[in-house]
């Protein structure tokens, strides 16, 4: 198993796990349709979960995509994403709605790329390398690939498409 992490240090308070999950559930289809699909990235139907405890016990990790490896009948390596976990409450990371959205988008890029067999070697050697960076930037994330942040295009998308819905969920 290979694990990709998005690590961005900052302080933050708490948010009930049920609210976190509702926020993630609302964001997944928006990110799939608006950000991934235009770049021919297909996010597999895998669980996206608000982590009920620190991801791998590390309070600095915001999100994680679990990638499982196997070998098919032709002895070809295959890998697929099987789970995305986001830990808004249990890390030392700022947990505003924009940060939750861009962390989820970062992890969804990992999961989408994991289903492309032609990228196996590149992604296995360098999960935050040039292939990941190219798609990360296409959906509006900036910064270092392993510590991405929301760039201007992502912020514009978030304000237009997601902010209002997440505020509704947060205030319900």
Verbal overview:
With 172 residues, the chain is an alpha+beta fold. The protein has one domain. Helices cover 42% and strands 20% of the residues. The protein is built from 5 helices and 6 strands; from the N terminus they run E-H-E-E-E-H-H-H-E-E-H. The protein has helices at 17-36, 97-113, 120-125, 130-138, 152-171, and strands at residues 2-7, 48-50, 61-71, 77-86, 141-142, 149-150. A 4-stranded mixed sheet has the order 1-3-4-2. The termini are far apart.
Short structural description:
The chain has 172 residues and is α+β, with helices and mostly antiparallel strands.
Blueprint (SSEs and pairs):
Layout lengths: L1 E6 L9 H20 L11 E3 L10 E11 L5 E10 L10 H17 L6 H6 L4 H9 L2 E2 L6 E2 L1 H20 L1
Parallel strand pairs: 2-4
Antiparallel strand pairs: 1-3, 3-4, 5-6
Helix pairs in contact: 1-2, 1-5, 2-5
